[in-house]
Amino acid sequence: MIIEMGYLFNRNGATLPVELVEQIDDAKDYPDVVEFAEPVKIEGTLKNEDDVFVLDAKGETAVLMECSCCLAPVRKELCFEIKERFAHTGRENEETETFTGDQIDLADFVKRGIIGELPMKVL
Asked: Taking the model in full, what pTM does it have?
């Protein structure tokens, strides 16, 4: 899930709407998920705040998980948030992610959001 953000460079205060949809075909990195029943949808904004790019977005998807009792597939709707700060390499601090070029790859942040919302057990 890539955000093209060249528009925001050198435009302090500018905002870019973010709308991404991507189907995840391989669920092996997601504990207890059999498959993704719906694509992952991300909606939010990316804002330039003094060359620190602030992403405020919400994500949603649906997954099939195995019932902990009978192993039948159970559909679970998941909603998560992504609130991150990004800066070019060289402006590092512990609260800001770094990137190079004019794109940000959200794959790891989406994965973290989904895993954080997965239930421990499904019945």
From this structure: 0.84
